[in-house]
Amino acid sequence: MEPLVGEDLLRKVKELENLSKEEKAKECGYYTVTKNGIERVNMMKFLNALIDAEGIQLDSAPNANGRGGRSASYRISVQSNGNLLIGSAYTKQMNLKPGDEFLITLGKKHIRLRQVDPEDREGIEEIEASA
To answer: Which residues form the SpoVT-AbrB domain (predicted)?
Structure first.
């Protein structure tokens, strides 16, 4: 039996309200049979499937490749060569594409990036000329 997900899972769990959570998990297909024929309930998969079915998002948005990895910390350090690198976690979150341009404004202790609208090229050239 394939484990239930989504609305089917929620409906089945409501039908089984008088059973224990382990029995519910098993009835919804969240178990495996070991080599020795012992049934082992996969509670973690069951609970995660319930959370997903309810639409609750505990994690930040997953990476585009679907695998885990480091999450964005919203802090960066100046590298030994003097560069500041903004990682792909941030550019993916902002849906930025290769070639997207930004204007850089330097403050006393901050850097502000303003995305350049492709149709606003004339305004950029004026700003660049005055810099």
So the answer is: 73-118
